[in-house]
Each structure stands twice: as structure tokens, then as C-alpha cells.
Write a structure and sequence with these properties.
By secondary structure, the protein is mainly β. It has a single domain, classed as Hotdog Thioesterase (Thiol Ester Dehydrase, Chain A). The longest helix is centred in the first third of the chain and has 14 residues. The chain is globular and about 55 Å long.
Amino acid sequence: MSIVASDVPGTTETSGPFPERLAGHSPLSLFGITRTSADGQFGTGMNPGPWMTDGSGNLRPGSLAVLLDLELSSPLFSGRPSPRAGLATSELSIDFVADAALLGGHLTAKASLVHKDEDGGLVRGQVTNDGGIVAIATLAGRYLKMPEDYRGAVDLNPGTPDPSLTMRQVFTDLPQITAEGSALSLLSSPWLANPRGVMHGGILAVLAEYVASSALDGGGGAWQPSSLRINYLRPSPLGEVLSVRAARIQQGRKLALVKVETLRPDGKHITSAQVSFTRKPASADSPGRCRNCNPGIA
């Protein structure tokens, strides 16, 4: 399967079965996001499933980024200075609980506002399931001037996930191993976009951890992420081919650090991220493996 840019500017060509399966989806439906309402308050959650795994069935904790970006941005979005103001995530930091049982029931995100002013703010939050806390995070956001017809619509109906899609299908390919680490090219597509028509911030964070994991020992699953820090530098419009490049900064016996850059076709940075890893304990029953997830079509 491949997705490549057409010779005609602004158009794309696709081949293979994935685009037909992805069309009509959004980042929320692709990653099993749920929205519930009780007493006028919305809650954000995530159903565990194969969308949390790579093509080899290894669990990718970075998959929580779509959930966290949505939930932690909510207090800032609801408190924006005017109905026509937009919100962009400028930084997302996630710390993952080691060996957390990510498949241990429905995942729920909670957020609390730390600070807000006319320019933006800071929010902290966490993700829990039946086993307790699986990740903690902070999000810094900034307000944007939007066109006069912008109304700040938020999709509260995530839709139904495809139970056979893994990250390999969502991102249409596997990262390629390079001398420095790994790399992946990806078309900025509607199913990966936010309501403003640019790549979803949570998707870009998932993508960073997905590609970074392949930079260590070829992505064999021996490492688990302990933290993800990503800065958003400029948007990625639909129709552009992104280049995601992961480079090992340090890889020791038990600790590793990988830098990930996402670039536009002109070489300008979309995001810059660092992902830290720890080596998994040797165990036949490692929690980093999704034993009951269907890896789907490779």
C-alpha cells in the first residue's frame, strides 16, 4: 500500500485497500475515542483496541495522545476569549506509567486548568483505567485569530472505530530503518485532520512515538516509552506529504532517547519531539504485547 503525491498540484493518488477503509473516519473514530454526557458535563474516554498497536502487535502507549490532546485542550477551548477564537496546542508532554496494563478496561481522561490568560494557558491531566493511572500529561495551548465565519465547532460524535485497523493501516505504512534511526513519509489526509483542516495534534504525537519506537533495535518491541514531549511549530495542511524522521540521541542498556522531527515538503518543521524509552523487563508475559488484538492486514 502506498499514498503518493500526484503530479498535479493539490491532488493525490492512492493505491491499495486502506484509503477506502479510512475515508469517513476522523482521528477520534480511528482511536476509539468516546464522548459521554452526564448532568451537562462531557467526559472523554477511549476504548482499547488494535488501534493502540503497531503492525507487529506491540502496544504503543503513544496512542493515548489523541485522547489527551482532546481532553486537555477542552478547558482552554471552552474558556476562549471569544466565540470566534481558535485554539492550537503548542506543547504536549506525556509521562507513561511503566508496565501499565493499557488493555485493562475503558480508558478515561480527566483534565484540570492550571493557568489561562488572553493568549492561552496550561492544563494538566491524567488517563486511568480499572488498573489505575496509566499516564499523566500537561498541555500548553495558545489562542488564534480565526476567520469571521469560524464558529469553533467541536466534534462531539466520534463515530465507530474499525476493529481491524492498527497503526500500520492508520498511517498506511511501516517506518523504514535508517542509519540514524527510522523514517516514514505520510500524506496529510482528511481522516487525520482536526476541524480546522490541518493535521490533528494528537495524531502528530502518536506518529512521533510510532516512528521513534522503530529507531531502537528495528522496532522489535524490547523498549517501552517513558515520556513523550512534542512541540507544535506550524500546521500541516491537507494534501502535503510529511516526512517523519527519528534519530537516536542515546541508546544504552536500559535507557534510550530518540528525537523526532516532522517536516513539510519545503523542509520547514511541523513538530519537534523527544521520546525517552526504558528497556522492558524480560518476561514471557510482557504487558507491552497485545495478545488479543488482531493486527489486521499487513
